[in-house]
Amino acid sequence: MEIIENFSLKKLNTFGLSVDGKYFAHVASMDDLLETKDFIAENNCRFMVLGGGSNVLFLNDYDGLIISNGLKGVEILKEDEEHVVVKAMGGENWDGFVSWCVQNNFAGLENLSLIPGSIGASPIQNIGAYGVEMKDYFVGLEAFHWETGKIQTWAYNDCRFGYRNSIFKNELKGKTVILSVTFRLDKNPIFKTGYGAIREEVDKMGITKLSIGAIRDAVISIRERKLPSPKEIGNAGSFFKNPVIPEMQFLSLKKTYPKIVSYKLPDGNHKLAAGWLIDRAGWKGKRTGDAGVHKKQALVLVNHGNATGKEIIQLATEIEKSVKEMFGVELEKEVNVII
What we know:
Uridine Diphospho-n-acetylenolpyruvylglucosamine Reductase, domain 1; Uridine Diphospho-n-acetylenolpyruvylglucosamine Reductase, domain 2; 25% helix; Uridine Diphospho-n-acetylenolpyruvylglucosamine Reductase, domain 3
């Protein structure tokens, strides 16, 4: 395994920020991981695992070791007439895996189509979209613990999944690298079309027979229309989480803003559309230098070319302050900010 010094991360973060890693290593095996562990100890340096780079914002060059997860492979562990249990390695591309599932008629993840990133990053964030979260089909994962140098297994209840959250984003942040994730998928699909206008998109596309392939096509169409591609303009997708507020606060806001976009949760709280709040506060399409808010989706902050991470985070801070003053609602960043 090769350790590269002063490695450009511009193509490895979807914001397209011009930052470097002091050291860089591509890990493709357990032997590579153990070598990496030794390097970290010998050089007493900080480190981080970088998947698809789709959920990070670097504020500076990274003065440590960047580890690229290159572990590949997808394996069917067991199946019966109703379900199939599939293990995917952490370095696999998430959307590539979803495509493979759909092609094999393994249902459940099709609503999560076109989400950027890797399999290994998916439990950290508990990625979700259009009424489905990764945890809904999660069985367990294997991870390498940096301190002990051993592989450990985490079951569903160990992971403490929440809304765009998990134990790997909190207590275990920076302490493990996820080697593989196991999912339990359906052979008899239950179509989830009630969220995010998927049914409307299916009808618009002229699809008469519903299938998981049709839902995947609809989700891809919606996402491509609403969200900018990092290939065209630097961004990390949704920059903020959709805030959750108590019903009393929601009812008060509803009186002032009758068209406020929300979704009532089973516990009685209300999840607000952060994009709507930001748009209503006047930020959609605004730009400060090369840091800006996307013209079609206010939830997405963009790099128009040469923005720095510090400029983007400053814009985010101003948006948070504005939304708080206008609605009394605090926004929380979904993106992982690397100092």
